[in-house]
Amino acid sequence: MSVKLLLAKAHVEGIRGFDVYRREGGYQSVEKALKQMNPESIVEEVKKSGLRGRGGAGFPAGMKWSFIAKPEGVPRHLVCNADESEPGTFKDRYLMEFIPHLLIEGLIVSSFALGSNDTYIYIRGEYAWIVDILEDAINEAKANGFLGKNILGTGFDCEIHVQRGAGAYICGEETALIESLEGKRGNPRIKPPFPAIQGVWQRPTVVNNVETLAAVVPIINMGGEEYAKIGVGKSTGTKLISACGNINKPGVYEIDMTISVEEFIYSDEYCGGIANGKKLKACIPGGSSVPILPANLLLKTAKGETRYMNYESLSDGGFASGSMMGSGGFIVLDEDQCIVRNTLSLARFYRHESCGQCSPCREGTGWMEKILHNIEYGKGKISDIDLLWDIQRKIEGNTICPLGDAAAWPVAAAIRHFRDEFEWHVNNPLEAQEKNYGLAHYADPIHVPVTA
Amino acid sequence: MVKFSEAQLAEVNRLVARYPEGKQKSALLPVLHLAQDSFGGWLSTETMDYVAELLSITPIEVYEVATFYSMYNTKPVGKYMFEVCQTGPCMLRGSDDIIAYIEKTLGIKPGETTADGLFTLKTVECLGACGYAPMMQLGKHYREHLTKEKVDAIIDECKKTAGVLN
Amino acid sequence: MSEQQLFKVTIDNITIEVPAGTTILNAARQIGGDVTPPAMCYYSKLEGSGGKCRTCLVEVSKGSEKDPRPMPKLIASCRTTVMDGMEVKNITSEKVIDARAGVVEFLLLNHPLDCPICDQAGECHLQDLSYDHGKEGTRYEFERRTFKKHDLGPYIQLHMTRCILCYRCVYTADQLSKERSHGVLDRGDHAQIATFIEKSLDNEFIGNVIDVCPVGALTDKTFRFKNRVWFLKPMDAHRDCPTCSGKVTLWNRGDEVYRVTARKDKWGEVEDWICNTCRFETKNTSDWVIEGPREIDRHSVIAQGHYQGSVGMNKPTETFAAVNAGRAPHLLMDIHSVSEVNKDSSL
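^ Those are the sequences you sent over. The predicted structure of the assembly is below.
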């Protein structure tokens, strides 16, 4: 069993309520932070912990906090990004639904560290019932003196408000989220200025993911240095992984980033192996935007080393032979799945979610979907594969926000690793309507050249 | 005439009070949710104009937002809306079959409403329930691990609630 | 810090000094010529514009003197300010040229290419952009997106199919009129400029949306299909207008005023906003004091019907006699009218 810092108590009966949560040691970090520490020392602890943003980009959280501008007389805000919408990702939902006070506790400490008296949780609109759960938790915390005016007699005031989105993946991008919080269309802003200088209502703002803010609780309780000892290298602490697709035990798992990908997929503690006795074909290890990997490159790196479930190991080999930790949305595809169809489904998703503000994403995502549709339905040409490659190349890096990259990478990776499957679709249009390309050679061991 | 009740107006005021002075536009998304739930499950021009007036913003600001977000319906919908996820992870677990089954059972295509105005089928993109796929949203809640039998049961349940089936 | 702090910036190997806070694009405009990136959405007179079309992407090969690291991605030059010692590559960067060709292709993907029947032809920034930075032919083999045409009141027609979503008209309405009644509806590849409910835009400055539109999406209904812009002679003129500056460009054919627009600088931007009365309702030459011909870039197709410094007022000086010792020109063929050219003179 690996260390559990966030979900250790998630299954305690009644943990959703304040009393049980408090009895189990909840809100200690608030007492410690507000009474024994000051904002600077909290930021320092978070920096020492090596905590990386858990939303997908993996940016060091402590560093992000230290960027916040502190102009005289201008209020600052902490905004919690609960707009979890990356396909394959449902970890924040689990945390908020089952142990909401952990998030509220993390938010109070973080608000104190950043000087935010009005903190907002921006939650995706579809999680409608979780809004009630969070508001109940906030009211309980307030009734017990952990929120509101003069918290624990320290003179610190803090209110937490829950804002519902209304169906837009793009609002997970922090500046689009800010626009949406201001009651506007979720069009990402052009940066600079960054939110730390001019965020919501032109005020300095920090936007952090749910899991990141919840992780502040154990960091304060155990100290940043102790937290950093868990895990490996720059992958410190624990990470929530939401596993889905063709596995026996889909769900949310907390890992300490020292286990191998193979163990994660096949051990009974986690995914419990591939469903229905099938074989592993491919996996998207960090949410739909990150590159898909064939089975052989997923379990071992191109150098033939074991691949682990952490930031560094998952990205070993760069995009040529690696992928990314991303948001921790772990999507497993078995031998019966069609890569072209899966890529088409994701391309449709990104076309649907493009805000339409900048031209490469607005026009390019739809174009890729149409071409993939043709290939999937037997109307593709071999030249379409190169065309797809060229389109994704012209979107990547050229858009206002990372949605362009997120749309380009899945297409690029699918062609990079599964080009023969695309070609088979084009060359066998009728057969491809009836059956799938199957496992082919995608699980074969990769030849590792011996180097002197 | 579109008009919130006293209780609903109090809720609007509570929402507006969460933002700094003069930033009442920030309440637009939650107020539109409230309006959609209160006035027939969709946002008519009249409803949107009313919301604009309540928040002292221009009507176009409301139209821009209402048409951007996928949860707002700017056209009437059925009493029960089946929003079935069709994105990658759900597709891997057979969402295409579920959608086809609903189409066949209700005799409607995605985007359509049954003649009795009871059901609307809508295909949606990832709702964050990938581990519990296939799934759909029905009102405020998710219905997960869908099978054909479960879909039948849900349809019956809706019909019963609507009083069409005893 | 003094306001006059100057930053040195090098664009395509040309170095200039500009005040701190200047964007790369505006620094490049000060140099002028080919090193200036094209801009389809940025408009210096409209606050908040820019960053969307991605045609002005440039490569920053050196961040600044202090931090010489290059920027990892191409950046929008219209929204990025220069740093001291910054080095920028525009047309000297293959990455930029490649990305820009991509952006042009994306912008044209769903554009109807109905230039032969579009009033904007000849002064269309998308046409210019395609000639300068695009490739011939398209690789797009699908049906193009179309929208219905809409009248936005008596003067303006919205032809959404041609729109490239630069948002300029939205900013114009926001910044020039009291209440904006059109905006961007829907999202992604369905996003459109619209009023939602059929509505006319009535504000005395709303006509300026026609001038800021880089394509033929917003056109002047009083000029629709009346003439090709390159057959008209643009003249600067003014009148005493109670609402606006009254400084306009008249587009004449003979003595007839075909249309009135604001005066545009060499980047195609309006110099002074004009009111609807000047634009749509003041179309007699006698209403205006004509200042002289408008200077038009010689590369523009409009320049072909335009004789700088001489239109309407001065008869060109005949120089033939002066340089030929008083002899009149000797005509090789005596043609009195064009229709006689092909007549067999032997008959």
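Chain A has a mean pLDDT of 95. The radius of gyration of chain A is 23 Å.

Shout if you want it in another format.
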